[in-house]
Amino acid sequence: MFIRSTVDGLFSVFEWIMRLVFINMLWVVFTLVGLGIFGWAPATAATFTVIRKMLLSRGEDVPIVRTFIQTYRKEFMHANTLGLLILFSIIILYLSGASMMLMGSSIFPKIILIGVAFLTCVILVFIFPVFCHYQLSIRNYIRYSLTIGVANLHYFVLAMFSLFIISFVYSSLPVVMVFYCMSFPAFIIMYISLKMFNKIAKVKDSETNYRHEFQTNISTP
């Protein structure tokens, strides 16, 4: 029994390794299809969507290519709008930081910039998991990513630590990055995000049940 469970576990790990390689290949191809700047965001959204479905499938097969292409087409405009906002925010932060360094700004503006950069980082970590898990407007995707990230900072810290470890591995073994540059970070962030989403859902359910019981007790003579 132990040997069988071990073999099944190893097979599952190997299956995930191969699937992540394939998903990463799709991300590269469809990023190039969108000429890079117009392809990376919908390809990233499709990557997170496929990985989310795989994590929630509980052993059932997920049509990777079909799901990826459908998501890429369906979310092309929305994802690009989000992607351009992300690129614009990063450019603004970079230019602001560079100008402060050149002009020798005082400590107060630097503290403000660091705070803004931190909040932007929170949004960047959770924006695509939120994008593929909820149906919201572009503004609410950004706002909700920030809200749940700040409210659950331990998940954000865990995600950042994981990304740091991944970056270290990629810098030490560049060949690994070739096969997993997007798919493996997306897998880790999506896994952590689903844990956070489930926690939020449980809290909301418990609050709803509490309110229902409270109202029932009040209405009962």
Radius of gyration: 21 Å
How many helices? The count is 9
Mean pLDDT: 87
State the separation between the terminal residues, measured CA to CA: 57 Å
Structurally, how many domains make up the residues? Answer: 1
Notes on the protein architecture:
The chain crosses the membrane at residues 20-48, 82-105, 111-132, 144-170, 176-194. Pfam families: DUF624. This is YesL family protein. It comes from Halalkalibacter kiskunsagensis. Helix 1 runs antiparallel to helix 2 (40-56) and helix 2 packs across helix 9 (183-219). This protein has one domain. It contains nine helices and no strands. By secondary structure, it is an all-alpha fold. The protein is globular, with a radius of gyration of 21 Å. The model has no long low-confidence stretch (mean pLDDT 87). The protein has helices at 2-33, 40-56, 64-74, 76-103, 107-133, 138-151, 153-172, 174-180, 183-219.
SSE blueprint:
Elements: H1 2-33, H2 40-56, H3 64-74, H4 76-103, H5 107-133, H6 138-151, H7 153-172, H8 174-180, H9 183-219
